Amino acid sequence: MAAHVLSSGATTRVRGVSPARRLRGRALPSGPAAGPAARYARALAAPLHAMYAIVKVGGKQYRVESGDSLVVDRMAEDEGSKVLLEPLMLADGDDTVFDGDDLEKVKVEAEVTGHLRGKKIRVVKFKPKRGYKRTMGHRSELTRLEIGEIKKLSRRPAGRSKEDGDGS
Length: 168
Known about the structure:
Layout: E1 2-5, E2 11-14, H1 19-22, H2 35-45, E3 52-57, E4 60-65, E5 69-73, E6 82-92, E7 95-97, H3 100-103, E8 106-117, E9 121-127, E10 132-138, E11 141-152
Antiparallel strand pairs: 1-2, 3-4, 3-6, 5-11, 6-7, 6-8, 8-11, 9-10
């Protein structure tokens, strides 16, 4: 056990000290002989610089990176079709986009790789001493998406201008 001296001079014993705290401020050993404590501390110290986005699909929010595979509620698109997902946030290193004007420049593209059904769930109702038992089953209809590209465009995608909308 490690002994710690408090400012009042009293000594207190601490049983468990995390590996990251034990290695704090020291050079981290590397290689296979480093052990799990050093690998754990190195993983905590490593910065996350991957570009990711929070997207909304079917009323739920998902954190996605480029190349991820995602299972969502059934979508009407066919297999192999490309879909654009609605971004709610984009993080790219130190740059984070929340604002509505900047989010219009973010493009998250995914491909429908297949439709599947979820695991069967059994729902049982039972009331004791009354002879009442009901069993129902449920399987969710699901769609698997493969996240292709997450891009931050330099300008907003082209849309219909106000002059074109009057029909003359």
